[in-house]
Design a protein that fits this description.
19% helix; alpha+beta; 25% strand; 3-stranded antiparallel beta sheet; 3 strands
């Protein structure tokens, strides 16, 4: 049996903020038995189903999403 380590979640947030910050955006690989896909979520936002993107964070968020898409199997 071969065992591997995979990145499942990455956090995008201002450098000065903690991981529990409401400004933290999680990019996660999810598999609900139909194949892997990417889920983007923000836990500080009270509006479920909505994410808010600061123009300054967009380049890093886009790069992270692209990276995680590449990690999907």
């Amino acid at each position: 049996m071969q065992v591997i380590a995979r990145v499942k979640t990455m956090a995008v947030l201002p450098d000065s903020e903690p991981l529990f910050s409401e400004r933290c955006t999680d990019v996660m690989i999810v598999d609900e038995a139909g194949g892997e896909f990417i889920e983007v979520s923000q836990h500080g936002n009270g509006d479920l189903g909505k994410i808010q993107i600061n123009p300054e964070e967009w380049p890093v968020l886009r790069e992270t999403i692209d990276r995680m898409i590449g990690e999907c199997k």
